[in-house]
Design brief:
The chain has about 110 residues and is mainly alpha-helical. Helix content is about 55%, strand content about 0%. The longest helix has 18 residues, at about 80-95.
């Protein structure tokens, strides 16, 4: 769904999977879009791929977010460096998943 890339734990899972040697081709993307809000959700999802910033991600626990961002900052030096790695990985995921390529094509009505 459109909030997936805003959840810090989800990003950490994808990042860890790829860094541990997992194949982008093995990542199965399934769209979860709200009925009656299809185009809005597709737009939000595309925007999340294009404008990813780990600092904007959320965790249920604010202390989890603080600790994870500290670890990322320590490992990468800057959050911007982590963002660049994640954006590259998200680009690979987007290119390898036909469902994500399809949402880049605008639908003509909200129930498409």
């Amino acid at each position: 769904g459109p909030t997936y890339l805003s959840r810090l734990w989800c990003i950490i899972e994808i990042f860890t999977y790829i860094m541990m040697g997992g194949s982008v081709e093995d990542i199965d993307v399934r769209l979860v879009l709200r009925e009656g809000h299809t185009n809005e959700d597709k737009t939000a999802l595309l925007s999340a791929f294009e404008g990813f910033d780990v600092a904007d991600c959320q965790c249920y626990s604010p202390s989890d977010k603080e600790r994870i961002l500290f670890v990322i900052g320590t490992a990468f030096g800057f959050l911007r460096a982590f963002n660049e790695v994640v954006v590259t990985a998200l680009g690979w995921i987007q290119a390898e998943n036909p469902v994500l390529v399809q949402i880049a094509i605008p639908a003509t009505d909200d129930n498409a």
